[in-house]
Structure formats: structure tokens, C-alpha cells
Amino acid sequence: MNLAIHAVTPWLCTFGLLSIRCGAFFVLIPTLGGEAVPIRLRAALAALFSLVLVALVGPVSLSDPIALGAAALGETALGAALGLAVRILLSLGEMAGELAGMSMGLSFMQVADPLTREVGDGAARLLGVFALLLFLAIDGHHALLLGLSESLEEAPLGTVLPRATCVATLVPLLSSTIGAATRIAAPVVVALLLTNAALALLARAAPQLNIFTLAFGVTVIIGMVVLAAALAPSLGLLLAELRRLPGVLGAVVGALHVR
User: Fold this and answer.
1) 211: Cα separation from own chain's centroid
2) What is the pTM of this model?
3) Beta carbons within 8 Å of 104's beta carbon, 6+ residues apart
């Protein structure tokens, strides 16, 4: 009986640590991390993926409770960091849409997203859907699972510790994502800035016009036209940013792995 327990314990340790890493990852990635997906389903997906990887990883012996607790903390940090990196990249479309929608005045009309239970304007939802479709078109979901499985080779179970170097990896990613979102929304923002300046001159020249009623419709129409005209280069920029995902995941794993 004792021999059986000693033989099974390393495999249970492997499964537990894998479940922690995969669970933290699946909680934070978009769509699966939203409130619309039940927590039980997310836990079941993490357990299923962990069960598949157990045979590839092999048994891990961590008999010391302190070492086991430190390993669990490190796996939580790595899974959360990987999921957060994916969420930052996939939020690029929504960031750009929020900037464009704010310039068009669509922020007055908020739309609830049934997946994330969050509120945003139509432009943010539109570009967010485009980003998700591009992500699926380039097999980004395969890259997610591949990156998670390859992280076990780059950072084996029990060799990960929470470190501040992970923040140094995620902060530049967030900065570059915000910069890309600004470049995507820039044509709409600049066009509407010029439009508002022209409307201000028109209101000065013809005070009898109800410029506030006229301005909203004009800004929405011009904003949508410019957004549609700049859609092709915007999608190209989105695609270029999404293709960085494997390198980003590798950088996050390298930042937390204790060699």
C-alpha cells in the first residue's frame, strides 16, 4: 500500500502543478476568461489539458511542503503572466475602437458585450471582433496551446519563481500595444479633429445653425467612412502585432524561469 502511494504521489504532484499553470492561463485569456464561461467549464478545460500533458512531463517529486508551495506559487505566476500577455495582445482591436469611437461620439451609446459582460461602443466591438477573427485565421489558438505546452520544456515544473523581470516583459508589451492602437485610430482621430475645427468655423459664420445637432451626425458619418477606408492597413497592423504572440510567450517564460 505504501509503495503504491509513493508511486502515485509524484504523478499527482505533476497533475496538480500542471492544473495550476493551465488554470491560471485559461482564466485570463479572452473569451474563455469572460464571465459568460462558467468557472466549472474553465476548470474542466484546464484539468483536461493538464491530463493530456501529464504523460509528456513525467513524475515530479517535491516531498518538501515548502518547495511544493513555492512551486505552486511559481506556476500560478507563470500561467497568469502568459494569459495576461495574450489578453493584452488581443485587446489591441478594442483599444483602437475605443479611441476611434470616443472621437466619433459613440461613447455616449454604450453596448453591453454578452461574453465579457463589459460595456463598450460599437467601434470597439467591431475592431475587437476583427482582431479575434484574425487571431483565429492565423491559427492563434493553436499557437496558444503550443506555447503553453512548450513552456514546460523551457520552464519545467518546479523551476519557476515569481520575479519582477516578468513585469519588465509585460510593460513594454502593453506600451507597444497602446502605440499600435493609437496608430490604428489615428486616421479617424485626425479626420474628426479637422471636421470639428471646420464645424466650429461654420458655427462662427452662421450662428443660427443648430451646430450641436448637425455635428453629431457629421462626425459619425465621417468617422465611419474614414474607418472603412483605413480598414485594410489597420488589419495589416493588427495582423503584424498578433504574429508576435509566440515570441511574447517565450519572453514571459524566460523572465520567470530560474535557470
Assistant:
1) 40
2) 0.78
3) 123, 188, 192, 219, 220, 223, 224
